Amino acid sequence: MKTFDHLTVVGLREWVALPDLGVAGLRAKIDTGASTSSLHATDIEPFERDGEKWVRFTAHLGTVVQLRHRRCEAPLVARKTIKSSNGHAQVRYVISTTLALGDRVWRVEFTLACRKSMRYRLLLGSKALIDGQLVVNPGTKYVQDKPVFPVSTTSATGVA
Hints:
This protein is mainly beta. It has one helix and eleven strands; from the N terminus they run βββββββββαββ. It has one helix at 126-131; strands spanning 8-10, 13-18, 23-30, 37-49, 52-62, 67-83, 89-101, 104-113, 122-124, 134-136, 158-159. A hairpin with a 2-residue loop joins strand 4 and strand 5 (52-62).
C-alpha cells in the first residue's frame, strides 16, 4: 500500500477562511466530483478599476439559521460556463483569492454562484484540492483545526 506523507488529510466538511476577502469561520463542503470551487454570492456587479476588470459581490456566509454577509471586491479572472450535475449550464464570474484551511494557505479560483438552496456556502472542488495537496478521507469531518487568521474589517478586496 502506498502512503503520501506530503499530502494533508481533510474530511468531507472543513472550516476555512478567505483572508483577502476578510472572511473567517466559513464551513466548506469538500467535493471531489466538482472540478471548480464555488462561493455563494449575490448582487454581482462587474466594474473596472485602473483599467482592470473587477467584480463586486455580496458573499453569504454562515448558515440559514445564522446568516452573515459581506460586501467584497476582487479582480475578475474570467467568465466560465459551468455545467451542473443535472446538465444545466450557467455562465459564472470567476475570482482568485487566498484560502486558508488548517495551517495551509494558497490561491484558489472560485466561481460566484447563488448557493441559497445549498447547505454549505462554499464548495471546494478538485482543482483546489490538487493545488493544496489535500487528500479526502470521506469517513471524517472537520479533521483540520479552524484556520487562525487575522481578518480585518476591511482589506484590499473586502468592503466593510
